[in-house]
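Hey, quick one: can you model this chain's 3D structure?
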Amino acid sequence: MSEHLESEHLESEQAASEHAVSDQEVSESADRELDDRGCSIQASLDVLGDRWTILIMRDAFRGVRRFDDFRRDLDIARPVLTERLKRLVVAGVLERRLYCERPPRYEYRLTPMGAALSPTLVALMRWGDDWLTDEPPTVLVHEVCGEPLDQAFVCWHCDETFTQSAIASRPNPSRQTPNGAT
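Sure thing. Here's the predicted structure for all 182 residues.
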């Protein structure tokens, strides 16, 4: 990369960082909002709930790790990418690792928390395949045998798969107060 482009990249990251929400503000806000809502879906959306963040995660699962590679693949504005990556790092979904000391350059890798999002992204992809396209643009296969994958709900106690109609939602007893309120 030319010196001009390196300088431009570093200046862009610095400018975006100056306008970014602080790590502590993001963390405190997420903790407060989960306590106020008690809803895991809302808390998840606070971390992942916009188009760019989901596409960054898709790329991370495809092995994209470096800022310029995310930028090039997604055609995303540098300040937007900087902010989304920072939020994912603060949330614990990605980790930032130094890969070049001069100039300092970082790559972004999935943490165990981030890797746990795989079924979520696959479900979102499948929903889009089923409802928004005539032909899926990508087919997920088992790398060992090459056969297409399926995604299912499983009850390990009953050793059965089932559909969403067999799912019930109940309050978590460990989150209830002594008078029974959640």
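One thing worth noting: Residues 107 and 178 are 47 Å apart (CA to CA).
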